[in-house]
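re: ur question from earlier - yeah i can do the single chain one, its not a big deal. heres the input i used so u can compare w yours
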Amino acid sequence: PRSFSAAFQDYLRHLGLQDFPCRLGSWDRSCPNARRRPRAEPAGLEEAVPPGEESPEVLLELLRDPHSPWALPPDCSAQDRLLREVAVLAPELLRGSRVFQVFKTLRMVDKGVEELDEGLLQFQKLEELILSANRISRVTSAHLPRTLKVLELCCNAVGDLQDLCVQPPPGLQHLGLGHNRLRGPSQEKHFTVDFWPNLVSLDLSFNSLTDLVGLVSQASTLPSLRILLLKGNPLTLIPTYRGFLVDSLPKLFILDDICIRPEDRLQFHGLAEQPELARSEARVVVSIGEMKGLPDPEAFQQLEVGSEGPAITYSYCVTYEF
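and the output i got, formated as tokens:
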């Protein structure tokens, strides 16, 4: 499996931090292997700058000028721009293992990451880790920096949270698991204060969670939870879904991107005491307007009374898969 560490090294190579105009090459005057140039004569005049040893200001302009052949593409991320500029202004910060100390926020989106290995532990100051749109199916908490406050794993293949909940980062405030493969009712048990004492925002949208009562029972133990996303799960088809959640979680501010107003609290007051209304079933009414490719019964000539001809009957079965 493609590890996070391998993807990160590929990412750094793609940025070209070792190439001109970044200052990690031989043109960098702070580099021990850089060519030393003689002082300008006569004394007192400004030191000459031979080719390949441009000033940081000139190198920075080559990165920022949209017409420069070394400029980053317009759609690059702010993280890409920051690293390239750091490589010009303070290249010593990106040499060797010191590069890991630069990151407080790290975005590795759509990089083909399949496994989170121990290399993540080198990011000792990391607070925000965004790994959306990869191929991650398993997250081991032992490989996550303890300093994390935001962990975004949207659009991956996570189907079980047991390894993540062994000893997760204690200060985590946002956990994003939308568009994954979580199935109920086995996963709802992982969303309690025992694992996430400081969680403020939880995104579980577009999974396969089905146990509304069980999920609410666990989430009600989260003392700091204010934002919850559950849309796209089967449990949202339950008629009393929103009302039951609003009344059961009085500290919640936002549910499925919709603010909870005081009048909502009043309207749904008392539903939390009636869990039987939040049963795990839903009624769906489907109206069929037109069907093509089927024989029209009215097109057949009606048999006369007393006719001995055979009667032909057509029946159809329509199946809906959710």
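Residues 137-273 form a domain with the Leucine-rich repeat, LRR (right-handed beta-alpha superhelix) fold (CATH 3.80.10.10). not sure if urs matches, ping me
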